[in-house]
Amino acid sequence: MKILITGANGQAGKELTRKGHASGFNILALDLDALDITDKKAVFRVIKDNNISLCINAAAYTNVDQAEDDIEIAFAVNRDGPENIAQACAKVDIPLIHISTDYVFDGNKKGCYIETDQTSPLGIYGKSKKEGELCVKAVLKKHIIIRTSWLYGVYGKNFVKTMLDLGRTRDEISVVCDQTGSASFAADLADAIIVIVNKIQNKEQIDWGTYHYCNKGAISWYEFAVKIFEYAKKYESIKINRVIPVNTKEYPTRAKRPENSAMDCSKIVKTFGVKQPLWSDSLKIMLDRQAHAKR
Ligand SMILES: NC(=O)c1ccc[n+]([C@@H]2O[C@H](COP(=O)([O-])OP(=O)(O)OC[C@H]3O[C@@H](n4cnc5c(N)ncnc54)[C@H](OP(=O)(O)O)[C@@H]3O)[C@@H](O)[C@H]2O)c1
User: Fold this and answer.
1) Pairing of strands 219-220, 180-181
2) What is the pTM of this model?
3) Ligand 1 within 6 A of 58 CB?
4) Is the C-beta atom of 62 inside 6 A of ligand 1?
C-alpha cells in the first residue's frame, strides 16, 4: 500500500511520516516544495504517477491570526487544496484521510462538541477549514475527516515550545484562562490515524465520515502552561515563578478564538478502537522525547 502524505514537514505530517515508516508502509512524504496542494494538475499527477492507494492530507495554512489578512491563501490551501486531493482520489477510487480543526466551532457550547454539532467558525482560518471539510465530503465518499485541536509535538512550532522558550528567560507570564479546549499530542494523532490506515489496508468495513480526535481531558491554556512548566523542570532550568491567569479580553488577538472547543472523541474510539491518552500523560511523553532528542 503506497500512501501519500501531503504537508509532510508540519507537526502532524512529520509524525505521520515517522510512524508510517515504522509501521512498514510505503510512504511518499511531500511538503510544499515538492507538492503544492493548490496546484490541481500536480496533485492529480502525483497520485496517478505514483500509484497511490491512500492519501493523508496534513497540509494546511495554520496561522490563525495571519489568516485574517491572508484570506485568499488560507482558502486556497484549506479549501481548494483538500478539494483537489479529494477529486484526484475520487478519480482513481482511493480514500482520503483529511485533518481538520476544532476552530470550525464557535465555542458557545457548554460541554464537549460532537461531530454532528453545528459548525460556525469565528475567523478566516476556521471558515476555510470548514469549507475544506465540505469540499471533501461533496466529492469523495471514501473520506475520513479528523478534527483535532491544540496540536503540539516535538516537530514544528506550538504552544508547548513557546511556553518553554518563555519559561527559560522570564520570571512570570500571563496566560489565558477563559478558553477551554483539548490538547493533542501529534504522536497520538498519528497513532490514531495509523490504526485507521491499517483497517483500510486490511479491507475492513470502514465507516467513512467525520471524527474528533484529541487527548482526554478539557483544560484552559493557563492549566496547560502550569503543567508544562511543572513537568519541564525535570529536564531543564525553568525560571518562571508565577503563571498569571488572565481573561481573553486582556489578551486580544487578531482572530477571535472559541471560548470552549473541547471535543468528544467517543465516536473514533468506539468505531476504530484507537487509544486516547490523558493530556497530561502525553505532555510528559512529549517533554521526555524532546529532552532526549536534544542530548
Ligand atoms: N496546529 C494546531 O494547533 C492545530 C489545531 C487543530 C487542527 N490542526 C490541523 O491539523 C493539521 C496539521 O496541522 P499542523 O499543526 O501539523 O500544521 P503545520 O505544522 O503548520 O504544518 C502544515 C504543513 O503544510 C504545509 N503547507 C502549507 N501550504 C501548503 C500547500 N499549499 N501545499 C502543501 N503543503 C503546504 C506547510 O509548509 P510550510 O511550513 O512550508 O508553509 C507545513 O509543512 C492541519 O489540518 C491543521 O489545520 C492544527
Assistant:
1) antiparallel
2) 0.97
3) yes
4) yes
CATH architecture entry for 2-151+184-215+263-277: 3-Layer(aba) Sandwich (3.40)
Share of the chain above pLDDT 70, in %: 99
- Break the chain into its structural domains and give their ranges: 2-151+184-215+263-277
How many whole angstroms from 60 Cα to the centroid of ligand 1? 4
CA nearest to 166, candidates 65, 91, 238: 238
Q: What pLDDT, in 10s, does the model give residues 219-253? A: 999 999 999 999 999 998 899 999 999 999 998 89
Return mean pLDDT, the chain: 96
146 lines ligand 1 (CB under 6 A): no
Question: For 56-109, how does the pLDDT look when each residue is reduced to its tens digit (9 = 90+)?
Answer: 999 999 999 999 999 999 999 999 999 999 999 999 999 999 999 999 999 999
